[in-house]
Amino acid sequence: MPVYLSQTAYDQLHQILDYLEENWSSAVRDNFLDKLERSMEAIGRFPYSSPPSQNFPGLRKCVVTKQVSAFYRIDQVRKEVEIMAVLDNRQTPTF
């Protein structure tokens, strides 16, 4: 299934990438981005492999790193996955 980022998830991702580059390095940013891309590929192949989110009914939670998770929904009619949010696991999840 194709995997897309919602505008909210896209904005959140760019905030994370900016933070990583400013506070760590471009190598750390690129490493995180590689992990996210691999997670998105896995979600596309096996959309039901991640558990349902306990905080957001109707969404599933994919742990990208121990610090960041992606929350997504599966659209069976359109045969696609939309990532709704990319959030820091250390915060109370809201979006």
Describe this structure in words.
It is built from 2 helices and 4 strands. By secondary structure, the chain is an alpha+beta fold. The mean pLDDT is 95. The two termini are 24 Å apart. The protein has a single domain (3-88), classed as 2-Layer Sandwich (YaeB-like fold). The protein has a 4-stranded mixed β-sheet with strand order 1-4-3-2. It is globular and about 40 Å long.
How would you concisely characterize the structure shown here?
It is built from two helices and four strands, in the order βααβββ.
Domain module tally: 1
Whole-number mean pLDDT? 95
CATH fold-level assignment: YaeB-like fold
Q: What structural class results from the helix and strand content?
A: alpha+beta
Task: Please state roughly what percent of the residues sit in beta strands, choosing from under 5%, 5-15%, 15-25%, 25-35%, 35-45% or over 45%.
Answer: 25-35%
State the shape.
globular
Biggest sheet: strands, sense, closure? 4 strands, mixed
Number of E strands: 4
